[in-house]
Amino acid sequence: RGRIGGRALLWCALVAVWEVSWGQLRYSVPEERQKGSFVGDMAKDLGLELSALRDRGARVVSEGRRQYFSLHEKTGHLVTAGRIDREQECGRLVEKCVLHCEMIVEGEMKIYAIEVEVRDINDNAPSFREAEMELKVSETTAPGLRLPLSIARDPDIGSYSLQRYELSGDEHFSLAVQTAPDGEIRPELVLAKVLDREEAAFHDLVLTALDGGDPARTGTAQIRVVVLDANDNTPVFSQAVYTVQVPEDVPAGTVLLTVSATDADDGVNGEVKYVFQIISETASDTFQLNTDTGEISLMGELDFEESSSYELEVQTRDGGGLFDTAKVSITVTDVNDNVPEISVRSLLSAVPEDSPSGTVVALLHVQDRDSGANGEVKCSLDMELPFRLRSSLGNYYSVETSRELDREAVSEYNVTVRAMDGGSPALWSSAVLALRVLDVNDNAPVFAEARYSAWLPENNAKGALVLTVRAWDADWGENARVRYRLCEGQVRGAPLLSYVSVHAETGALYALRSFDYEEVREVELWVRAEDGGAPALSSNVSVRLLIVDENDNAPQVLYPPPASSGTGAGWTGVELAPRSAEPGTLAGGSVTRWLVVAVAAVGSLLVAFLLALLALRLRQWRRSRLLSASSGTLRAVPASHFVGIEGVRAFLHSYAHDVSLTTDSRKSQLGCPGGSCCNTLPAAPPPDQGAPLLLPEEHS
């Protein structure tokens, strides 16, 4: 029993299947920021919770020896691990300075590649390698002579780099600027007026270099032009460009190449000296130039991985101040002098025995600082082990299982990873990974029934017990402890959890609100049972909750509307219906509108009928007058041939009807009084029964 409990505690610390997912994040930060400065909100950009980053062992690693960035544990921000000098890390020849690092989430075996662009700021002023320059010009030199001047250097790039030069001090000279093919601007001193040594033996000038900052940073150099007697030959280099290839393991003190120049003048004017005209700070500490012989030798050590090429400019001067320049290009070739480096970025110390094939147990980073074939690395494992290597992002490798493990056969493994480069002879290194195999939680909870149903009367009390679900787990200890929870869902647009809840320990299902059958008639939900294993196993069961209707709604009369309170005005109680309407005929909604139209039409016909009848009676009366005038006597006219007020009133009363409506009934009722038919106008008598309009005269 104690053995099983120990296994259960170990199981709680594992993750069943660990996967490697690769992503790419890009940020930018100005250079020279203080340590701890904000770079980017990694937790937000990756959609990760801060607690997840802390609990799962998230950290940031950088390639190389220096760590530029770190992960702030409280905020999840990527911050600087120290001041970053863009010029020191990338130099001025690189337009976009990008530093690479990775964030590793050990708890999930995930790697996120990060690129951070270090933006340039105007933190460097232009500077001249020589703060003071001396030029010698013969007094016989014609105006228009151009003398190259020392070039200022600004480590910044873009608009913050060197933009222009300015010259001040003397009217005999002006400034011209030439643009080299690589875009570099080079100042030249132009002789504007003829010099006179007797008038002035030297001229002092100030050359100012300005960058594009706001305000602009500046650097100055003092120029003294010494006026000499005539020197009509300039020194000339044997080559305009000198090139040489040097292996990176060449010892210090080795002479790499020799530059040479000749001058046709005699004496001092024919003696030449050599100096570096343009050279970077790194190159000045690496190379040395013999001013008399022109030999360029190695002072320090070369490292192909640090710098693969150098561009220099050498100047030669004769005794009269005339000079020539030449370029020197030194290319460093790679030597296989770096052993492959294996870094274990993440390691799973124990793995469950039922882990599927392909489960990642370790993340490795392999790097060889050499280039070409010398930097190509191949990794391998022992073939008899149930593990394999898979190449991932960049130089990352994942160690994963190649088949299912069996703890009863082998409980521990020592996996040796070997990395070998492609040099000749090849260099190699190895790393040993120790792994333990553990048992697993392999039984899920099982419900007592495949499906649950319950009936709940409406208007129930809040918190009423609906039913209880039960599940059992065949495992032991914490793995057999079953807890219940509801799966997410909605009822009439509201969360399911606002209607019902389940007790986590007992499985009792409770109603959180009073149900109304007229609103919700049934609720379909799922209950999940989980055990205490790591990872937890679960099963779901369907629960159907049926709401039982109760007689809790009284009928409502929607029509006719009730009388308005206080006004005395309301419905008159009279509606019109066709004479032929049968009992039970529906009168609410659109039928009422048609009844109004019908009544209006009948009324119009009635008026027309009365007018026609009146005209007819007037015509008959007029004819009787004429007849009486001719015959002398109008005997009688039956009263039934006239329509009076009482007849019209009886006609209207025949259309009175009763209407009753209810809210719940499927049928509205229309009732017409049975005695209304007797109050309509009587039909005209048959022709043989009609009373004569005129009585016959009595004949004597």
Automatic annotation (TrEMBL):
Region called Disordered, residue ranges: 681-700
Calcium recorded as keyword: yes
Chloroplast is among the record's keywords: no
Pfam families attached to this UniProt entry: Cadherin, Cadherin_2, Cadherin_C_2
Coiled-coil features, chain-numbered ranges: none
Subcellular location: Membrane
Superkingdom per UniProt: Eukaryota
Cadherin domain sequence ranges: 68-128, 129-237, 238-342, 343-447, 448-557
Gene3D superfamilies listed in its UniProt record: Cadherins
Classification of source organism: Eukaryota, Metazoa, Chordata, Craniata, Vertebrata
GO CC annotations on file: plasma membrane
Cited function: Potential calcium-dependent cell-adhesion protein. May be involved in the establishment and maintenance of specific neuronal connections in the brain.
Segments crossing the lipid bilayer: 594-616
Gene that this polypeptide is encoded by: Pcdhga12
Protein name listed in UniProt: PCDGC protein
Assigned keywords, A-Z: Calcium, Cell adhesion, Glycoprotein, Membrane, Repeat, Signal, Transmembrane, Transmembrane helix
Signal peptide: 1-23
